[in-house]
Amino acid sequence: MITLTQKAADHISSFLSKRGKGEGIRVGVKTSGCSGMAYTLEFVDEVQPEDVVFEGHGVKVFVDPKSLVYLDGTELDYTKEGLQEGFKFANPNVKNECGCGESFNV
């Protein structure tokens, strides 16, 4: 299961509204970075048959089955800290993260 905080859902809803289209957001992982894996985020305009769909605060989150293995239990938040803002992943499966926070391993 993937969950969203209210702040993350509000941010995604705002972007979808500005775009004027979209079913929700796709969360995934790819091989990358110094720790092995990195998160991916993209808008979903076309649902794929294999997608697993979660909904929180009125926003749909799409995940492919291969990524779900690494993301199950993750909460997606949107934070602003000083000049930094962006999505933050609270993933219980992560064993290590790189120093810059861009990649992880499980």
Automatic annotation (TrEMBL):
Cofactor: Fe cation
MF GO annotations: 2 iron, 2 sulfur cluster binding; metal ion binding
Boundaries of every Core domain copy: 2-102
Pfam family, one: Fe-S_biosyn
GO CC aspect terms: cytosol
Keywords: Iron, Metal-binding
InterPro entries membership: ATAP, ATAP_core_dom, Fe-S_cluster_asmbl/transfer, FeS_cluster_insertion_CS, HesB-like_dom_sf, IscA_proteobact
GO terms classed as biological process: iron-sulfur cluster assembly
Family: Belongs to the HesB/IscA family.
Record PANTHER family: IRON-SULFUR CLUSTER ASSEMBLY 1 HOMOLOG, MITOCHONDRIAL, IRON-SULFUR CLUSTER ASSEMBLY PROTEIN
Protein name: Iron-binding protein IscA
Source organism (scientific name): Eikenella longinqua
